[in-house]
Design goal:
The chain is of the alpha/beta class and about 230 residues long. The chain has one domain: Alpha/Beta hydrolase fold, catalytic domain (Rossmann fold). Helices cover about 30% and strands about 20% of the residues. Strands 1-2-4-3-5-6-7-8 form an eight-stranded mixed beta sheet, with helices on both faces. α2 packs across α4 and α4 packs parallel to α5. The longest helix is centred in the middle third of the chain and has 15 residues. The chain is globular and about 45 Å long.
């Protein structure tokens, strides 16, 4: 099918939510979150073929076809509100986040464990952010360009946000303790910045290739096969 787009309200901003595959409307949607400076795919990725329900993709604020706020102010926590708007409109979803989207997906899983039915953390742009330590003070002077996407403010601000491993583990704990799934977080990324390394090392986290991770949640919460 060709991509179908609807508009969701997020405060005064408009978000572009794309349907990449209709799927079985009685099954849970799969929500795709893109990396920093990117946008939603034009067609359904091959690694989602094992998903029986609808496949959705969100353009974050300042990216793709979503609105650009005036003069920035981007944080991963603000992007959580973008995802929350989708959850409010579509109900519980399984979320696959790439790069920056993986970090946002983990935060949302901890904040909305009843509505996020499993997250997959995958490689992509902006995965590391600004590292685990606060950066030195700086002042970035940019000219607001409301029609430019990706927004230069988003590229600057979201590439420098601090991501301490203990903050990531706090959200992991919230997700694990309040989820109905035995293993609500799956790591598929090969690149492991400090926050993701800490998450992947947790006993409650599963590691699987991306296509198998999608199937894992499509089949319900089951234990992955163990070699030997």
């Amino acid at each position: 099918m060709s991509r179908r787009t609807e508009v969701l309200a997020q405060g005064r901003l408009r978000l572009a939510l794309h349907t990449l595959a209709e799927g079985d409307p009685d099954r849970r949607p799969l929500l795709l979150l893109h990396g920093l400076g990117e946008s939603s795919p034009r067609a359904r990725p091959l690694w989602t073929e094992g998903w029986p329900g609808p496949v959705l993709a969100l353009d974050f604020t300042g990216h793709g076809e979503s609105d650009v706020p005036v003069a920035g102010g981007y944080t991963p926590e603000a992007l959580m509100a973008d995802v929350d708007a989708v959850l409010a409109a579509r109900g519980p979803c399984t979320v696959v986040g790439r790069g920056l989207g993986a970090w946002v997906a983990l935060l949302v899983a901890g904040a909305r464990p009843a509505l996020v039915c499993g997250v997959v953390l995958a490689d992509g742009s902006g995965l590391a952010g600004g590292g685990a330590e606060p950066p030195s003070s700086y002042v970035e002077v940019l000219r607001p360009e409301p029609e430019r996407r990706p927004d230069p403010f988003a590229l600057v601000e979201l590439s420098r946000d601090v991501r301490p491993p203990d903050y990531a583990l706090d959200h992991l704990r919230f997700a694990v303790e309040d989820s109905e799934l035995e293993h609500p977080v799956v790591v598929s990324a090969r690149v492991r910045p400090a926050w993701l390394e800490a998450v992947a090392a947790d006993v409650d986290v599963v590691e699987l290739p991306l296509d198998e991770a999608v199937t894992y949640f499509a089949d319900g919460d089951r234990r992955p096969a163990i070699d030997g």
